[in-house]
């Protein structure tokens, strides 16, 4: 826009690039995709929707408790054993069909295996995997269950239980999406045999495993007033597509900024004002750089006050090209 001298453009190119980068960052921040956080009870009206929507079809909720699994138990005998025998008498639970952090075979763990203790005697996970902190962080920052802030202990316990179930249970492997043993002949997915050469196939995804309705109802009851990601209808995997950000909008007309799990409320208007002021500041820096450059080049934008022949002062504004503009009598 301004006809800057060549040496000025060269000497101040890094400054101009920096200000341009700042401007781009501010514009990007103003349009960044935010994590939409809402109360569990507003995202999932029922426990069934929680279990089915959160995990993108990995689980299907059933009120037939002899033909559906639980993610946690306290009995000495794992009740899921009987369920697998009923539903899949030829299914092989002596191997760990899911493969990511999993073992190849379910084996006993030692006395320190306490976090995921229901699977202590036949665990597809190691004690390193079955650590409360690791269960929340192992898959990266976008897969944390506390991205909308710290969960209540009662609510977080259900996420730990689900994580233990996924990592440690040999029964969940029957429902591996590609190549699992449990197959509903009415489900088109039944024909999807695992093909390692197909980039859309994997060995970790679960498909349509029946889960007890009372377990899912209890999960929603424990988490009803906690905040969780509502993006994609509350899909854990859709939420994971959103990059981590310090800006976390919640259900009310404010934006919650979560930094080290401490929340600060900022209204949307204040955030908009900050962005506008930032843009104005960048524009001012660019303008001042132009003024300084022209002064150094001997082509100032503003001429000093002089006395006209009539005894009146006038001020001359140099043109963009460096020639004098018509005098404006004061």
From TrEMBL:
GO cellular component: external side of plasma membrane
Keyword annotations of the record: Disulfide bond, Membrane, Signal, Transmembrane, Transmembrane helix
Record Pfam families: Folate_rec
TM helices/strands, residue ranges: 270-293
GO function terms (MF aspect): signaling receptor activity
Domain Folate receptor-like, first and last residues per copy: 95-234
InterPro entries: Folate_rcpt, Folate_rcpt-like
Transmembrane helix recorded as keyword: yes
Family in the record: Belongs to the folate receptor family.
Name of the protein in its database record: Folate receptor-like domain-containing protein
Origin organism lineage: Eukaryota, Sar, Rhizaria, Cercozoa, Chlorarachniophyceae
